[in-house]
Amino acid sequence: MIAANRKAHFDYFIIEKLEAGISLVGSELRPCREGRVNLKDSYAEEVDGQLWLYDMHIGSNSFSNRLDHEPERKRRLLAHKKEIIKWGYKVKTSGMSIVPLRIYFKEGKVKVEIALVKGKTKYDKRDSIAKNDAKRDTERELGGRF
């Protein structure tokens, strides 16, 4: 695991998940291996039949020269055409968004887990906090007995 967007589970209802590849330039791989990746405030959009990931920050490579990559450039996501079109249609018609949940290595390749999400309102967020607190309290009570 390289990085995770932990805030996404709090801010959104996750409808559907998808694993996608990501197109990186050579100087972006070392910062990924070192874990200098930030998914906060990043999102994906479907543009002309392609998925693009915006605002994902990949730190600079200390060993690269002046031709280093831009830290927050848009990056292409690699997925099947049918899935891209389906998700693009859902985003345009039903007010959903595409958000990356985590980025990780799988068989030497960098993969991104993206999710089709719907935003939570303020009272939904309060409800999820209350449920987590209740769950934590019951685990604390039962944890000492077993």
Fold and architecture overview:
The protein is built from four helices and nine strands; from the N terminus they run βαβαβββββαββα. With 146 residues, it is α+β, with helices and mostly antiparallel strands. It has one domain: Small protein B (Small Protein B, Chain: A, Beta Barrel), CATH 2.40.280.10. The strands form two sheets. The protein has a seven-stranded antiparallel beta sheet. A hairpin with a 2-residue loop joins strand 4 (43-47) and strand 5 (50-54). The chain is globular.
The name of the CATH superfamily reads Small protein B
Strand order of the largest sheet: 1-8-9-2-7-5-4
Unreliable residue stretches:
none
Task: Describe the oligomeric state of these chains in a short phrase.
Answer: single chain
**Roughly what percent helix?**
25-40%
Total count of helical runs of at least 4 residues? 4
Question: Which band does the percent of strand residues land in?
Answer: 35-45%
Structural class: alpha+beta
